[in-house]
Amino acid sequence: MTGEDEGQGASPAGGDARSAEGRADEARRVLKVGDPEVRMAFQRIVLESPDAIFMYRVEPLDGASDLDDLDMSADADAWEGVGVDSSPGAASEEGEAELWGDAAYRRVWMNRTARALVREDAHSLLGTRVHEHPNGILGADLLHVLDAVRLEGGSTERVLEVDDGVKTRAFRVRARRVGSLLALRLMEVTERVRAERQSQQRESILRGAARVGRLLLERPWREVLPQVMAELGRSTAMSRAYLFVRRPDSDDPPVFDQVEEWAAPGVRSQRDDPELQGVIFRERGLGEWEERLLAGRPVHEVIPDAEPFIRDFFGPMDIHALLCMPVTVEGKLWGILGLDDCVRAREWTEGELDVLRSAADLLAGAVHREKQALQLEESNARMAAAVSASEDAFLLATPAGEVLECNPAAIRLFLPDQDEGADLAELRVGRVVQDCLPGLLDELRPGPWTTLRMERQGRTERGDVFPCQVQVVRVQVAGGPLFAISVRDLTHRKALEDQLWQVQKLETVGRLAGGVAHDFNNLLTVIRGNADLARSVLEEGADVGYELEEVARAADRGGRLTQQLLAFSRRQVLQPVALNLNELSRDTARLFDPLIGEHIEVRLDLSDNLWLVRADPSQMEQVVMNLVLNARDAMPRGGRLTVETSNVELDEAYTETHMGAEEGEYVLLTVSDTGTGIEPQHLDRIFEPFFTTKKHGEGTGLGLSTVYGVVKQSRGDIWVYSEPGEGTTFKIYLPRWEDGGAVSREGTEAEDASPQPVGVDEGAGTGAGTGARPIPGGPGSEVQGTQRILLAEDDDAVRAVTVRVLGQLGYDVEKAASAEEALDVLRTGAEFDLLLTDVVLPEMSGRDLAHRAQELRPRLRVLFTSGYTVNAIVHQGMLDPGIHFVEKPFTPLSLGRAVRRALDAPEDPTLPDRLE
Prior knowledge:
Layout: H1 17-33, H2 36-47, E1 52-59, H3 76-79, H4 93-97, E2 104-110, H5 112-118, H6 122-125, H7 141-152, E3 155-163, E4 168-178, E5 181-188, H8 190-218, H9 221-236, E6 240-246, E7 256-263, H10 287-294, E8 299-302, H11 308-314, E9 321-329, E10 332-341, H12 350-389, E11 393-397, E12 403-406, H13 408-414, H14 425-428, H15 433-436, H16 440-444, E13 451-459, E14 465-477, E15 480-489, H17 491-539, H18 545-568, E16 577-579, H19 581-589, H20 592-596, E17 600-606, E18 613-615, H21 617-634, E19 639-650, H22 652-657, E20 664-673, H23 680-683, H24 703-713, E21 717-723, E22 727-735, E23 788-792, H25 796-808, E24 812-816, H26 819-827, E25 834-838, H27 846-856, E26 861-866, E27 874-875, E28 878-879, E29 885-887, H28 892-904
Parallel strand pairs: 17-19, 23-24, 23-25, 25-26, 26-29
Antiparallel strand pairs: 1-2, 1-5, 3-4, 4-5, 6-7, 6-10, 8-9, 9-10, 11-12, 11-15, 13-14, 14-15, 16-18, 19-20, 20-22, 21-22, 27-28
Helix pairs in contact: 1-2, 8-9, 8-12, 17-18, 18-24, 21-24, 26-27
């Protein structure tokens, strides 16, 4: 055979076509009649070619073979060239005519590669016809190729796939006529065809997965499931595609039901097969499959190559190969995508498996989205029902205050005149948040926040105002932020709290009255007893100094008791200054040693750069001393007492768990001990007056109530933490004071202010009773004077003793029993240097008297006195700068010093404007 098709030779550049044809003819002549050595060399090349080469002779269907007498026993080299007619004129016109019409093809030559390919003895093949081997590579498929070349001429090429009994193989077949012979050249392309087919198959699966993804994104998965199964089946060229879904209540073992199936044309459907409902893999001998699927791994089997029990199980179903791909939702096996091949023993590449995993993931995502949507829908329905049924009002509003949504409770709260069945839109149309909750939006706009809680005053449509608790949550939506506002009417709760407070107050007043009565009865017993003794002693002409001294001491004790009660009730007068608690703690600690003893270790842990607070130093000293003495009593066998200070900032989390606390910057004063601790049942009562756990006679029960009152009146908070046997810690939070100014306390002495702490030299007096001891100050005393004083006091006894004390100090005193009487005195034209007036007077307050008196006498100084601090000169218990005040009960010494301070003060005596 020749190596090139006739007419395919190309002439060299610049040559003529005739010379090229001449060279081709010469080549054919050499091959036919040329040198035998050249012919043998060519035949050797063809013989050893890696491609299989066959040559066929065309003959009539009923003609006799020219090779009947061929000696097939000769050496191969003797017959490999048989059939190649090298004689001149072999391809005659007669021979050419025989090629037309019906013909058979007799195999007359094949090379070594061809013999290896067919795996049959060459002697049994040569001389036989093609149709005598209908199967395999030498079978009927070749007839179509040979007929095409015989009838159409020239050459042809196509790819044939044949089954050689072991596997399917692919060959590229090239055929051409050579005279009266037909030559076939077969090149094996099995791997290339397989690769191309796999690529095409993967591309098809990819396109199918993409279409599946679009379907699942566009519509609910249940609606498109039939189309999804069809897409998967067609794109994978499988016979069946189906979905098994796991029953929700099945865990061990999992149970599956087939819910959808697609079957290719001509393939038996299993849609209604009851065996595919309630499938439990392990019960069907497929426990290993179940484990793989539960672990998220696919199962793919080629049935003919599988284990015997699998062949026995799936063989009757006419399944040659199958694939089970797990569908996992929220980390749990939800279902199985299945694919059956009923035609061939299909194997899967990793690329194809990856694509099908993505399809399973797409389905899992669609199921998960629907599940989330259902959960969200159910949650929204429950939330809507809860909001609708809630007694709290709910509003959804824009930052501009427009109400978009509301619940029935909002109608009832803000539109009380509306009928119960009023349309919810009543509140949404023409109404804004500012109508219902005035000023709320101003608090919502500034600053980064997500949730705010507060108490405010709400307002109904008709103008009624009510207390309410408001919670606002900022919700970010596509169009911008919205405010979800819940409003709880506190009217009823406030009323209940007031009732409870009244009950508690009456209870406290009862205990307080009992304690006060007990202590004052003791004091009155001392006073009355000593007065009676003094009377009897006077009748005998003896000295009564001792008895009067005891009366004075009892009066001092009564004054201290009154001050402690005022401290608890936050009705005492504080004279605050800018105070550094570090300095106060160090100064107070110097008094600890004689009070607590050497068996207690004292530690001061004071923070650097401590902020200032605004408080009364003497009252804060009393606070610290009372806490220290309590700690001492809790450590009878010794222990450790620690006083600490620090700067702290209280946030929302703290204030939510500590009722009454407010956010902000504070100075923290902590007093801790390692003593016996406080029993839990007593913690809620330790600040009550006259409540004590000490033995009878060891405590008054007013120490901690005094501490509580002072701290609260200083706008602070106090909290106690204690464990029995572990010790106790008191934490006092005082607001940071950033104002640079300080309230002047020039000339103030401790004796003028608050009483001594409980337990600190309780027998010491703060002054002498009237007539009991010599009045302090004689010639040259700093408390004496000669100025004229106008005294306005409505109590006869107090007025009398005050006139006597001031007279003994050298002052000229004019007394008045009322404000009008005092003004009448001033209208006479009499001049005075100082007006000493009680704050509380009948018909007119001391403040009004002072203003009217200064209108008559602009340079008149004013000194106020009172035993009751709810009045115009004290604001929240704090004495205003520029006000001179002496608190009742006063001693002659404290009164004298207060008068001197008022007369000697350098400031303008005009009362502050804030008193107007």
